Q: What sequence folds into this?
């Protein structure tokens, strides 16, 4: 029998030096963040390109009927988005799970546009996408982990049983229908289930802003406001399906910066952030067309839901110890169940 020798055991392998103890290369915080961002941007471009639209194509439904369906599906989308945030909040998951579930949802619907005609199928895909996202990426949030025992805190992953999803859908979906739809989603997405999200980009962009980390109040205000804007974008396909997560995260952070005065966030720190991002991606810049359009859309949408400038000002001036700007773009309902009498 021939002995198989791993190439890393060969004496002439260039990375091995018998005379010196191997030590991994240590990256400083900025280098690590930049490396992660470069990898995520590459993944975003090559594996998870943004969708130009998930609405019906002109050759499927024409004229006024297409516009009517588009308007209806946008209403369904917003209600499903609100419901999804309520579910993850109720069970104590990280809110990024909703971003991941809508990545599955949008890509699957883009491949199967006929689903937009059926409200029941549309809802079933949404429920299954959230079930799949929680199963694969359902990490418990910090507040939930703090309530657990020391032994339980070792496992940050949570899980919602399939039967629970069946229950909170109020008969909309059965176990078999969710499992069948799950197989269809996995097949159509070719098992590409680890998309970079606007939330993951945002958490790394924040680390590129100098000095803010030393001011916990400003950091919290800036992070929560920009996180709110990225979550708000999920509810509207005109943003989430037409622009990449990196652009949405970048635009959200720039828009959030506008709510903080130059005393708490100096101009030089803002420029430093812009330059840092430009090092690894020249397309991400304040005057890029996509960034401007996303900022304009987020500005209008946020003004319809909350006075962000007033809330940020209140956070900075009156509540230095407790900086929670706004928890969600969703309307918190009294129940997690889908309504059986109304849409979604």
A:
């Amino acid at each position: 029998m021939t002995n198989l020798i791993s190439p890393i055991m060969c004496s002439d392998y260039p990375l091995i030096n018998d005379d010196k103890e191997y030590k991994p290369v240590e990256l400083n915080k900025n280098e690590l963040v930049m490396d992660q961002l470069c990898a995520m941007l590459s993944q975003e471009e090559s594996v998870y390109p943004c969708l130009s639209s998930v609405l019906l194509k002109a050759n499927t439904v024409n004229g006024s009927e297409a516009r009517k369906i588009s308007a209806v599906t946008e209403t369904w989308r917003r209600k499903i988005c609100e419901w999804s945030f309520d579910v993850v909040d109720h069970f104590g998951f990280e809110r990024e799970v909703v971003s991941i579930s809508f990545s599955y949802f949008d890509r699957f619907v883009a491949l199967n546009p006929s689903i937009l005609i059926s409200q029941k199928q549309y809802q079933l895909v949404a429920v299954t996408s959230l079930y799949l996202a929680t199963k694969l990426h359902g990490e418990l949030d910090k507040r939930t982990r703090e309530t657990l025992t020391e032994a339980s805190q070792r496992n940050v992953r949570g899980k919602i049983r399939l039967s629970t999803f069946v229950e909170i859908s109020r008969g909309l979906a059965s176990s078999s229908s969710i499992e069948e739809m799950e197989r269809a989603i996995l097949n159509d997405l070719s098992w590409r289930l680890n998309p970079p999200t606007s939330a993951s980009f945002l958490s790394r962009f924040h680390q590129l802003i100098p000095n803010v980390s030393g001011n916990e109040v400003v950091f919290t205000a800036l992070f929560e406001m920009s996180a709110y804007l990225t979550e708000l974008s999920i509810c509207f396909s005109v943003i989430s399906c037409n622009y990449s997560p990196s652009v949405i995260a970048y635009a959200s952070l720039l828009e959030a910066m506008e709510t903080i005065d130059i005393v708490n966030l100096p101009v030089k720190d803002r420029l430093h952030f812009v330059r840092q991002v430009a090092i690894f991606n020249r397309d991400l810049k304040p005057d890029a067309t996509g960034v401007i359009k996303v900022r304009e859309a987020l500005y209008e949408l946020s003004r319809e839901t909350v006075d962000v400038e007033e809330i940020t000002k209140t956070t900075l001036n009156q509540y230095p110890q407790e900086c929670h700007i706004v928890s969600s773009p969703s309307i918190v309902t009294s129940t997690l169940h889908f309504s059986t009498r109304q849409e979604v």
Summary: The mean pLDDT is 76. The chain has 14 helices and no strands.
